TrEMBL record:
<keyword id="KW-0106">Calcium</keyword>
<feature type="domain" description="Calx-beta">
    <location>
        <begin position="394"/>
        <end position="489"/>
    </location>
</feature>
<dbReference type="GO" id="GO:0030001">
    <property type="term" value="P:metal ion transport"/>
</dbReference>
<dbReference type="GO" id="GO:0016020">
    <property type="term" value="C:membrane"/>
</dbReference>
<keyword id="KW-0677">Repeat</keyword>
<keyword id="KW-0406">Ion transport</keyword>
<keyword id="KW-0813">Transport</keyword>
<dbReference type="InterPro" id="IPR038081">
    <property type="entry name" value="CalX-like_sf"/>
</dbReference>
<feature type="signal peptide">
    <location>
        <begin position="1"/>
        <end position="29"/>
    </location>
</feature>
<protein>
    <recommendedName>
        <fullName>Calx-beta domain-containing protein</fullName>
    </recommendedName>
</protein>
<dbReference type="InterPro" id="IPR049804">
    <property type="entry name" value="Choice_anch_L"/>
</dbReference>
<keyword id="KW-0732">Signal</keyword>
<dbReference type="GO" id="GO:0007154">
    <property type="term" value="P:cell communication"/>
</dbReference>
<dbReference type="Pfam" id="PF03160">
    <property type="entry name" value="Calx-beta"/>
</dbReference>
<dbReference type="InterPro" id="IPR003644">
    <property type="entry name" value="Calx_beta"/>
</dbReference>
<feature type="domain" description="Calx-beta">
    <location>
        <begin position="278"/>
        <end position="378"/>
    </location>
</feature>
<dbReference type="InterPro" id="IPR051171">
    <property type="entry name" value="CaCA"/>
</dbReference>
């Protein structure tokens, strides 16, 4: 095969590898002129290039923001540079069952390894989904972080490598690796549901015998037709790109995990390309499952507020074709007398994943105090099924005006600069009472321009009035002025919202 040969100057450990990209040449045996990987790990200090926050920021790419990041890293995690002609991309994150600096070439040892856990074993619940129940793991390493994608699909570029190639190919209890999106394995052999590993991507044992997906494998073992890449790893995959469906605009979780199996020798590693966690829109296969988005206690509505309440209905697990569902109401509160529904049939077109049904309260002159009604999803069409939260209970409150507590925002408009990184909205209220709040996109997008927030605020004699704090995402992207909405809703029994109970927040892009 052909590789671009990076001709440059090796500089002492701890400095940056600088090189010039040359033309494509046939792969030859290693020599001292080949460039190598520059690898940083805990030996070089945790700052500024070796820490969880840095990794989260560097992995997040187009239309993705990252937040909470954790792991159990030591000498087995690090950054690498200069990998274009070796790994297939220039720089990224390494996680290994051994010491990451041992990954650098040349491949002059048949099984260079580090057994950190000295025979201690455990069962990692995530990796057990791949290796199978009961298989015990050692040298388990993992990293995990939350991310917010703009769209419903993400992709990530990676390479798996191991010293167990080729002698342990097609043997039981090989090292196990996985990238998990929201708990499910996502690092699969392209076009299959098979997790990437030593026994699923290889050139056979011996080479050419009983190979599995050899089109994705590069042999780097010492001997004929091998050891051409400047790394200790005896074999590695070509660059693979996983794709997975996720929840757009919400926190999702990615976990990268790897472990030895059987013993702590013959280390395996995974390389993750910086900036390759990208988000893009796509239609998820299948007609989908329909449910209410809200789950929880009865939803209280005060008749005298003349409320128009938006109830979200989601289509999950599929977006193909046109499907519909009816919204059926029953209870002591009567449809078209105490409230109206608009619409009563929700139709999702191809790719649509969210619809809204409006509850419009009719404020009459009758003293009814408290009535109940239930909304239920029925009659799905187009192959869709109803699954999850299919019913919601509502309380319709009709309290006399002088019996109610008042709750409201201090202002209907707030302005914040990106560099301020947070906007604060004070809320006032009579006690004892409580109210729910949430954020809604306008021209600003949650996860891209600000962090979506929702929750419940309480007012009591012994507490100060609460403040809603919304983090603002300060990026380097020129965006102009954008807005989002913060609103109060669903006040507690005998409480009423007083205007303003919605506010527009304007974000000023002050990037220079």
């Amino acid at each position: 095969m052909l590789f671009s040969s990076l001709k440059g100057l090796k500089i002492l450990l701890g400095t940056i590898l600088v090189g010039l990209l040359g033309g494509a040449v046939p792969v030859a045996a290693q020599d001292d002129t080949q460039p190598g990987l520059t690898i940083y790990n805990a030996e070089d200090g945790w700052e500024p290039l070796y820490n969880y926050t840095y990794w989260g920021q560097k992995l997040a790419g187009e239309n993705v923001s990252s937040s909470f990041f954790e792991g159990n890293c030591g000498l087995n995690c690090g950054n690498f540079y200069g990998g274009s002609d070796i790994i297939g991309f220039d720089q990224g994150l390494i996680i290994s069952t051994g010491k990451v600096k041992d990954i650098a070439g040349p491949n002059d040892q048949t099984g260079k390894s580090t057994d950190f856990w000295k025979g201690s074993t455990s069962i990692d619940p995530f990796l057990a989904k791949i290796s199978g129940p009961g298989v015990r793991h050692t040298d388990v390493e993992w990293l995990e972080f939350n991310f917010v994608p703009k769209y419903n699909t993400v992709s990530l570029d990676y390479v798996f490598a191991s010293e167990a190639y080729n002698e342990l190919v097609n043997q039981p209890n090989n090292d196990v690796f996985g990238i998990f999106i929201n708990g499910e394995p996502a690092s699969l052999v392209p076009g299959t549901n098979v997790p990437v590993g030593i026994n699923t991507v290889n050139g056979g044992n011996p080479i050419g015998t009983n190979a599995s997906h050899p089109e994705w494998f590069i042999n780097n073992e010492q001997g004929e037709n091998g050891a051409n890449l400047n790394t200790q790893m005896d074999g590695l995959t070509r660059v693979m790109t996983l794709t997975a469906f996720v929840n757009a605009g919400e926190n999702n979780k990615i976990r990268i995990a790897i472990a030895d199996v059987g013993d702590g020798m013959l280390d395996s590693s995974v390389f993750i390309k910086f900036g390759s966690l990208r988000s893009f829109p796509s239609v998820q296969p299948g007609p989908g499952k329909i449910s209410f988005a809200r789950v929880g206690t009865p939803f209280e509505i005060d008749e005298k507020d003349g409320v128009v309440q938006d109830i979200i209905v989601k289509r999950l697990g599929g977006g193909q074709g046109t499907v519909s569902v009816d919204v059926y109401a029953s209870g002591t509160a009567i449809l078209d007398k105490d409230f109206r529904l608009e619409p009563q049939t929700l139709t999702f077109t191809e790719g649509e994943t969210e619809k809204i049904v409006k509850i419009i309260v009719i404020n009459d002159t009758e003293d009814e105090r408290e009535e109940l009604f239930t909304l239920k999803l029925v009659n799905p069409t187009g192959g869709a099924v109803i699954e999850g939260q299919s019913e919601i209970l509502f309380k319709l409150i009709d309290e006399p005006e002088d019996h109610r507590y008042r709750i409201g925002l201090m202002s209907a408009a707030y302005t914040v600069k990106e560099s301020d990184k947070v906007v604060r909205l004070p809320v006032w209220g009579d006690y004892p009472s409580n109210v729910w709040y949430c954020t809604c996109n306008e021209t600003a997008v949650a996860g891209q321009d600000y962090v979506a927030k929702s929750g419940r605020l309480f007012f009591s004699e012994d507490s100060v009035d609460p403040t809603i704090e919304i983090p603002i995402i300060d990026d380097d992207v020129p965006e102009g002025t954008e807005t989002f909405k913060v609103k109060l809703y669903n006040p507690s029994t005998r409480a009423a919202l007083v205007a303003p109970y919605e506010a527009i927040v304007t974000i000023i892009d002050d990037d220079e």
